[in-house]
Structures are given as structure tokens and as C-alpha cells.
Amino acid sequence: MITQIDIKTAQRLLSDANDIFSLKIASNLKAYSDYDFFSVYGGKGVLIGRYYNDLVIRTKGGISEDTMEELSLFLKVCGFTSALCGMETGTRLAAAGWSNNEESLIYKFSSRLIPENEEIPSIEEIKVNPQLDTVFPIVKDGFPKIKYDDWYTDINHKIRHGIASVYVYGGATATVMADMNGTVFISLVATKNEARGKGEAKKLLRRLGLYFEGQGREVCILCKEELSPFYRKAGFYECGKAVTVFPNK
């Protein structure tokens, strides 16, 4: 049965995990464990992080049909806005009637994929956690639907608690949303409209990838399929798929 679990149990279940779903849950757990808009639920082989009405579902191994039925029922009654999960889980939820789904790709960085003699900025050329009001216009151009208050409150809170870091190079930005168990999760990669075509986002990602890889950490991102060519040029390779489930209309 999928039920709400306490913070210590959630921390234990996430203590040695480094998949992208665990990273997203752990980031919010570390930031918002004392807030009522965040909660964690667990069942046999299933861990669910809820941030307001957005869910992240982590499944380990092949979960049973009974657990899938419980997960589908959980989605029906919880009043969610979106639910991110792995491809297998998303496929099985689609078979259970959740047809309003959207696929994404999981990518990891490898320095071996960067051509020799490529121009890459030094780490000193990258701004770290600049004034957030100067970053939001860049993020907004990349994510037009994003709301300032929601973005600022979340990122500012996570920066102050040492969870997130915002990086800017020229007119491009990227945010480290989680860093645990040897894996860094990067999100909110965007370029200001007037700076596009200069390759600044690609250079920023390459530098961050090289920087973290040099410290023995993997770097992963989650992206839409149409952005695959960009991330491949930046030094990333596909290593998995994810599905976002939305409420059926």
C-alpha cells in the first residue's frame, strides 16, 4: 500500500541513490522537509515525492501488478498536476489508462564526446550565483511559461541552503538542482534570445561537465527529444528515458 512516510525513512531510502528521480526528490526533501507543501510517499518498490501538486515517482526493479494498481489509484485520488517517472513505469501507467503522457530523455556528460581544440571557457569565467533578478530574464526566454515568484522563491531558498547553484556565462545560464552520491543534476538551461547562435550555452555546459567530471562526479540532465542535437554537441549522450504523466482530461 502506498502511504505517506516520515522524513527519516525517506532520507534512508535516498541515501545511496543517484538516479535522476531520486535526485529530484532528494533536492526537495533537503529543502522543504519542514514545509507542508512537500511530502513523501512509499510503497513496495515505489517512492513518490510531492512538491505542491507536482510528483516525482521513483521505482526500483520490476514492481508488481498490485503495486501498479495502487500507483494508478494514488494518481486518481491525489489531485496532481504532473508526475515524472521512468519509461517502464510510464508505459505501464499508459496501459492502465493514463494516456496524457510526454516523453523526455535522460542524458549524461562525457568529456570524450567533446572534439579536440574546442573553445571552452575557464571556470573563472563562469559567474556563480549572481543576483537572481539578472538571471530570470535569461530563464524566461528559455522557459516562457515560468513564473518569477515561483522560480525565485524556490531557487533562492535552495541556494541559501546549499542545495542549488546558478551558473551564468554570457547570455546563457544553467542551474545545478541536486548534487548527491557522486551525481550532479543540471536543469533550467537557457539562453537569452539576443545571445542565441553564439554557442554560449554549449560552452557553459561543457565547462560545468568538465569541472564536475574532474571531481569524479557524473553530470545528468533531462530534456525534450527535439533538444537532443544540442545536448549531444555539448558532450552528452542518451542513457535513459522518462515520462511525465498529466491528469486525463
Structural topology:
Layout: E1 3-4, H1 7-14, H2 20-32, E2 38-43, E3 46-51, E4 54-59, H3 65-78, E5 82-86, H4 87-95, E6 101-109, E7 127-128, H5 132-142, H6 148-160, E8 165-169, E9 172-180, E10 183-191, H7 200-214, E11 218-223, H8 228-233, E12 236-245
Parallel strand pairs: 4-5, 10-11
Antiparallel strand pairs: 1-2, 2-3, 3-4, 5-12, 6-11, 6-12, 7-8, 8-9, 9-10
Helix pairs in contact: 1-2, 5-6
How would you describe what is shown here?
The structure is a single chain. By secondary structure, the protein is α+β, with helices and mostly antiparallel strands. The protein has 8 helices and 12 strands. The protein has helices spanning 7-14, 20-32, 65-78, 87-95, 132-142, 148-160, 200-214, 228-233, and strands at 3-4, 38-43, 46-51, 54-59, 82-86, 101-109, 127-128, 165-169, 172-180, 183-191, 218-223, 236-245. The protein has a 12-stranded mixed β-sheet with strand order 1-2-3-4-5-12-6-11-10-9-8-7, sandwiched between helices. Helix 7 (200-214) links the parallel strand 10 (183-191) and strand 11. The two termini are 26 Å apart.
